[in-house]
Amino acid sequence: MLIVFLGAPGAGKGTQAKALAEKKNLTHLATGDMLRAEVAAGTELGLMARAFMDRGDLVPDDVMIGMIKGRLKTPVSGGILLDGFPRTVAQARALDEALDAAGTGVDRAIFFEVPTEELVRRLAGRATCSGCQRAYHDTFHPPRNADECDDCGAKLVRREDDRPEAVRNRLDVYRTQTTPVLDHYRAAGKLVEIDGGQAIDAVQEELIAAVE
Questions:
Q1: Which residue is catalytic, options 13, 50, 108, 122?
Q2: H-assigned helices in 73-146
């Protein structure tokens, strides 16, 4: 099984992907995490991607396609869940071609729909401990002391692309470049739309029903 998760930044794709991957024995490929790992390692791909990511812009198609094609060549058990790819029609078509060559294809494209106001609220409040990597949120899970981890006392850091101005740019980019991907999978009869504004458990139940 190969499942694609679609949705704006902050729609909850990562949270739902981890839960579904565990329940259905899927390999979770989160392109955002893969790119940040490349940036942290200082690789050539990471250096190319960093400027785009800090502005909240999409990383160029050729960089993303090359990274995903390389990863899909690695054998996996169960199936694959792609989280954060494709984000443009060009990426979706390149994925189709790569899968066709391997004698397979996308089984489901799941779209998480969340109102813009809620997306900004979710994204702009995130912070991570620079020491133990514990996650916090100004609204949903604030630290006891501002900008300090409850567990280890290390400084909390905020991703550049989670700052309010970058968040709004990311959503603008999403609407103009990623929304057409929905039409691509809708035309193929593979798109399933889910209300991502619900409680986490409710979203998971709807997601499992869509996959099954």
A1: 13
A2: 89-101, 116-124
Of the listed ranges 30-44, 108-122, 133-147, the least confidently predicted one is: 30-44
Is CATH 2.130.10.10 the right assignment for the domain spanning 2-116+163-211? no
Known catalytic membership, residue 71: no
Which pTM value belongs to this model? Answer: 0.77
- Interval 161-209: pLDDT, tens: 777 788 888 888 888 888 899 999 999 999 999 999 898 999 999 999 9
Question: Among residues 50, 87, 108, 122, which one is catalytic?
Answer: 87
36 is catalytic: no
Alpha-carbon distance 86 to 179, whole Å?
A: 11
Instruction: Kindly state the percentage of the chain with pLDDT values over 90.
Output: 37
In the annotation, is 50 catalytic?
no
What does the chain come to in residues?
212
Q: How far is CA 51 from CA 45, 128, 177, 188, in A?
A: 11, 21, 18, 34
Active site residue: 50, 108, 122, 126, which one? 126
Confirm whether 18 is a catalytic residue.
Answer: no
Name the active-site residue from 69, 121, 134, 159: 159
Q: How many CB atoms lie within 10 A of CB 17?
A: 22
How is the chain split into domains, by residue range? 2-116+163-211
pLDDT tens digits along 38-87 = 888 888 888 888 888 877 777 888 888 888 887 888 877 788 999 988 98
